[in-house]
Amino acid sequence: MGEATARRLAREGRRVALVDIDAAGAERVAAEIRRDGGEALAAVADISERAAIDSALQEIRGALGPVTILVNNAAVENFCPFAEIDEGNWDRVMAVNLKGVFLLTQAVLPDMIAAGWGRIVNISAYGAQLGATEMAHYTASKGGVIAMTRSLGVELGRHRITVNSVSPGFIDTPMARRAIEGGKFSVTAEQIVAGYPIPRLGRPEEIAAACCFLASEDASYITSQVLGVNGGAAT
């Protein structure tokens, strides 16, 4: 989803920085964007660490200028019965999925306030709204993202900064495929989506389209909202 969003933003003329702990993966996407005529930079950081974020942003600002659009997409998932979740597991999921959103948003906020304009789009999760078996730590982290989104939208609106969340349903990503192939669901993926009004898996590009809309001037009067991109699945 992050890759698709970066590509879409670049096609729309935005200078894009990809921040990822996977240096090779981020550079691959950045290089392909540059090859296609866009402007992109790969920066390596563990987003759960403030020092790593500060270092990455120093590089990004030096190459691309101030940050006025932020898409908080990075996340880790884990399946584990609630009674068996240990503190290390809980803390790692929270550190990336929730603390990372806090740290990155706080770090770029001065750029947006100085510009008098900003767009923050946080990727949450359908499971945070509905619930999901053996994912209490993951859904709790994403529920926190939704709550943070709503509060920041209220707080930052006076600076012409909007804060919204895209809540993906069942999207065909490597993370989802690992879960499917690992038998993490009690029924097949096809059985899950069969009951959706749009009975198929979603595409990363559809998440990208939602993110780019919320990052645009067309969405200037939308804030503190959760946009479900989930084929019409009930929440």
List strands and helices in order, with pairings.
Layout: H1 2-11, E1 16-20, H2 23-35, E2 40-44, H3 50-64, E3 69-72, H4 87-115, E4 118-123, H5 126-130, H6 136-156, E5 161-168, H7 174-181, H8 189-194, H9 204-214, E6 226-229
Parallel strand pairs: 1-2, 3-4, 4-5, 5-6
Helix pairs in contact: 1-9, 3-4, 4-6
Notable characteristics:
50% helix; 235 residues; Rossmann fold; alpha/beta
Description:
By secondary structure, this protein is α/β, with parallel strands linked by helices. It has a domain at 67-229: 3-Layer(aba) Sandwich (Rossmann fold), CATH 3.40.50.720. It has 9 helices and 6 strands. Strand 3 (69-72), helix 4 and strand 4 (118-123) form a beta-alpha-beta unit. The two termini are 21 Å apart.
At the first level of CATH, what is the class of the domain at 67-229?
Answer: Alpha Beta
What proportion strand? 5-15%
Under CATH, the topology of the domain at 67-229 can be stated as Rossmann fold
CATH architecture of the domain at 67-229: 3-Layer(aba) Sandwich
Low-confidence spans? none
Output the CATH homologous superfamily of the domain at 67-229: NAD(P)-binding Rossmann-like Domain
Biggest sheet: strands side by side, in what order? 3-4-5-6
Q: Could you tell me the radius of gyration in angstroms?
A: 17 Å
Mean pLDDT: 95
What is the compact description of this entry?
It is built from nine helices and six strands; from the N terminus they run H-E-H-E-H-E-H-E-H-H-E-H-H-H-E. With 235 residues, it is an alpha/beta fold.
